[in-house]
């Protein structure tokens, strides 16, 4: 559910020419994390590379 919601936000940013999107995540996020909450954050972060090239989003610096 949250992954779909994040995808909707990214789509809305693209459609409205939003130049930046800030997403704050958590320490310990990984696709193989023990916590389902952390695994869910990892799925959302996987959307970022797609957004980075198309909506002006960027990852950690």
Account of the 3D structure:
Helix 1 packs parallel to helix 2. The chain has 61 residues and is mainly α. The protein starts with a helix and ends in a 7-residue tail after the last helix. It has one domain (2-54). Helix content is 51%, strand content 0%. The chain contains 3 helices and no strands.
In short:
51% of the residues lie in helices and 0% in strands.
Shape: elongated
Number of domains: 1
Low-confidence stretches: 55-61
Radius of gyration: 12 Å
Give a quick account of the main beta sheet: strands, pairing sense, barrel closure.
Answer: none
The proportion of strand residues reads under 5%
Secondary structure: helix percent: 40-55%
The structure class reads mainly alpha
In DSSP terms (H or I, runs of 4 or more residues), the helix count works out at 3
What are the SSEs and their pairings?
Elements: H1 2-15, H2 36-45, H3 48-54
Top keywords for this entry?
mainly alpha; 61 residues; disordered C terminus; elongated
